[in-house]
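Protein: Acyl-CoA dehydrogenase
Species: Novosphingobium kunmingense
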Amino acid sequence: MTTERARAIADRVERFVRDVVVPYEQDPRRDHHGAPLDEMVYEMRDKARSAGVLTPHILGDGDHLTQRETATVLIKSGLSPLGPLACNTMAPDEGNMYLLGKVGSQHLKDRFLEQLVSGRARSAFFMTEPADGDGAGSDPSMMKTTCRLDGNHWVIDGRKTFITGAEGASVGIVMAKAEDVAQGGGACMFLVDLPDPAIRIDDVPNTIDSSMPGGHATVTIDNLRVPADQMLGEAGEGFKYAQIRLSPARLSHCMRWLGCCIRANEIATDYANRRHAFGKALVDHEGVGFMLAENLIDIKQAELMIDWCAGVLDTGSLGTAESSMAKVAVSEALMRIADRCVQVMGGTGVTDKTIVEQVFREVRAFRIYDGPTEVHKWSLAKKIKRDWKAAQGA
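Structure follows.
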């Protein structure tokens, strides 16, 4: 279910993406691993601003669309891998804007949120840490990055990895653990201006995906001094704030990549109807036609899962379990869709003649990003056990 307001916005976004953004898919302005350069990103955003579709999920008065309304809009923005970048609905900016809007003080909103909503800056979320040895990896409770109060500044030290968009970002949200319980203890979050000489980019590896500017960097944070009034929310509440951000952010990923898979399926369907082999169109061969039929089923199931989870989040519930279920179900369904599209198109499907091969790569990465499928299943299994014990009165 959605609203007329959301459908009207989504229609404008779809027209913009199909008419203006899709031609940019062949633009050569890319970095070393194929991600669009900021020059191209901001050029597209200027056009989105003129078309009235920049940051469409945040209204003129600063209010957000509901999660269900957001789904209607973000799915359309995802019809091209470049669409979310052009419309300013892409991760990590979309999730960072959401978190700042929910938790940030007016001072932080004026200082940092405004430049993100305007689309004139990119941001990065510094949470994940290297998984070498006993490093945190996907387990933020093992976080080793520390922060300590020194006068009216916090001093942060540590290492982070897979920090999407760190290279070229202007705003950062850094998560660290307070060393002294008397200083608030637990995890804290801070807003920082970037670049900062205390945050050194060590490596930006080539990865299977290539849709996000700046790649996924490993960084060293060495004696980063942050004014005390740039702490996001309260000391020790960082894990809670992370869930405020991550639950809807996982769902937003589902929305955007569903849009990409809808487009990939359109391309594969067109190919199967135009291409002939063994005396008839490919679509008339059961092996091909059935794959496209299965795609329609998976697309509809993904839409329903997204709508259900969005409805839970709209009730005000944190929805951690629901977003985990949606992330697993949708990412796995989208992987099947993308894989079938490649298979239907044969040799053409593995070339860069269309976006199908890129969608396949992006969705494969999505099964890991924002928590691998197995981590979410493990979390859900723990909930099953807790709920069973509660039912037994244990």
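Remarks: The chain has eleven helices and nine strands.
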